[in-house]
Amino acid sequence: MPRVSREQTDENRRLIEAASARLFKERGLNGVSVTDIMASAGLTHGGFYGHFESKDELAAVACERAFGESVVRWRSLVKEDAGEQAFVDALAKHYLSAKQRDEPGGGCPAVGLAADVAREDATKPVRGAYLQGLKSMLGRLASFAGPRPSKRARQRAIARLSMLVGAATLARAVRGDPLSDEILTAVRDYLHDSFQ
């Protein structure tokens, strides 16, 4: 059997990570098998263990990847020198949209993975990856207060992130009912009005 090049090995790993990040957000950590992930990546099941020791290891890597993708999306929402209100408004418009609600595989891991991560044993590596990802989101929201945000600025960041994640989670849970759109609109408006 011909040996796979280093470039192809790296590409296969990237495909596995991307597929798992999307599938875990869509179906949950326990709603996806290794076979599902490998098929979605266009690879055979047997190649999985050449890249990862376990599904638990992959879950942590996929979680890190998903949060990294969210950071990139957050940065693309407004110009680097935008103010706090412009950033929060753009974030709420993006985060609390029908598209984000209806396409969990492309959405935020803080929403898509929260319930599953909460059910995982504290020793599972995905717990640490999720915590670090959440802290990076909070750091960005608090960054407008300067390099050493006050306790009040940190509390505002926690409250805003909690509203975004909670609203997106609830709207997704009742998708199809008018309440879903009401939730998205109410929280977008509330976050905007909090600057007034």
Automatic annotation (TrEMBL):
<dbReference type="InterPro" id="IPR023772">
    <property type="entry name" value="DNA-bd_HTH_TetR-type_CS"/>
</dbReference>
<protein>
    <submittedName>
        <fullName>TetR family transcriptional regulator</fullName>
    </submittedName>
</protein>
<dbReference type="InterPro" id="IPR036271">
    <property type="entry name" value="Tet_transcr_reg_TetR-rel_C_sf"/>
</dbReference>
<keyword id="KW-0805">Transcription regulation</keyword>
<keyword id="KW-0804">Transcription</keyword>
<keyword id="KW-0238">DNA-binding</keyword>
<dbReference type="InterPro" id="IPR009057">
    <property type="entry name" value="Homeodomain-like_sf"/>
</dbReference>
<dbReference type="InterPro" id="IPR001647">
    <property type="entry name" value="HTH_TetR"/>
</dbReference>
<keyword id="KW-0678">Repressor</keyword>
<feature type="domain" description="HTH tetR-type">
    <location>
        <begin position="10"/>
        <end position="70"/>
    </location>
</feature>
<dbReference type="GO" id="GO:0003677">
    <property type="term" value="F:DNA binding"/>
</dbReference>
<feature type="DNA-binding region" description="H-T-H motif">
    <location>
        <begin position="33"/>
        <end position="52"/>
    </location>
</feature>
<dbReference type="Pfam" id="PF00440">
    <property type="entry name" value="TetR_N"/>
</dbReference>
